[in-house]
Amino acid sequence: MKHLDAPAHTRGEPAFVDDLPEPRGLLHAAVFASPVSHGTVLSLDTTTSRTYPGVVGVFTAADISGANQIGGMVQDEPLLADVEVHFVGQPVAVVVAESPHEARVAATAIEAAFERLPPVFDPREAAAAGHFTCPRAPWSAAMWKRPGRAAPRSSKGAPSPAARNTCTS
C-alpha cells in the first residue's frame, strides 16, 4: 500500500507544528503528574504556583465544570485525578502560562501529598479486588438461553451480541 505523504516527507516539505509561527497570545501548559503508581490524593496546594511569573491559571479536577472524563471507548479515565491516582504520570493539575518554561517551573511548585496504596500487577488479583478498567458486562444467564445467543460467534464469524465486550461495543 502506497503512503500518500511519503514523497513530500522524504523531501522535507510538510510543515509540522513546530515549524509554524506561534500565534500572538499563545499559552503553554505543563502537567503536574502523580509521582506514585497507586494512591489517594491527601492534599493538593497550587497557591504558590499561581504566583509565579507568566502563570495565567492552574487547574485541578475541582475546576472542571462538566464530566472529568476522557476515556476513548468508555468514559472511564479522568482528565485530572481527583481522589485516587492509578499510575505514575497520571495528570493531577495543569499549569497554563505565557511560555513553556514558565509553565514547567510553576508546575514544580505545586505541593501534593499522597497516601501510597499497594499496586496490583496480576490481573486475577485486580479482578478479585474489584479493580476493573471498564464496567462489568450486564449479562445474565437468560441471555445465553435465548435462541441465537448460545454461540460466542455467529455463522459469519462476527462476535454474537452476547459475546461482545462492553468496553468495545
- Poorly predicted runs are 158-169
Helical amount among residues, as a percent range? 10-25%
Could you describe the largest sheet, including whether it forms a barrel? Answer: 3 strands, antiparallel
> Helix-strand pattern, N to C?
HEEHEEEHEHH
DSSP strand content: 15-25%
Number of strand segments: 6
Radius of gyration: 23 Å
User: Reading side by side through the largest sheet, how are the strands ordered?
Assistant: 1-5-3
Q: Judging from the principal axes of the Cα atoms, what is the shape?
A: flat
Structural class: alpha+beta
Average residue-wise pLDDT: 83
Report, as a whole number of angstroms, the end-to-end distance: 29 Å
Number of helices: 5
Structure notes:
The protein contains five helices and six strands, in the order αββαβββαβαα. With 169 residues, the protein is of the alpha+beta class.
SSE map:
Layout: H1 6-10, E1 28-33, E2 39-45, H2 47-50, E3 55-60, E4 84-85, E5 91-97, H3 100-107, E6 111-116, H4 123-128, H5 141-145
Antiparallel strand pairs: 1-5, 2-4, 2-6, 3-5
Features:
20% strand, alpha+beta, 17% helix, three-stranded antiparallel beta sheet, 169 residues
Question: What would a concise description of this structure say?
Answer:
The chain is an alpha+beta fold and 169 residues long.
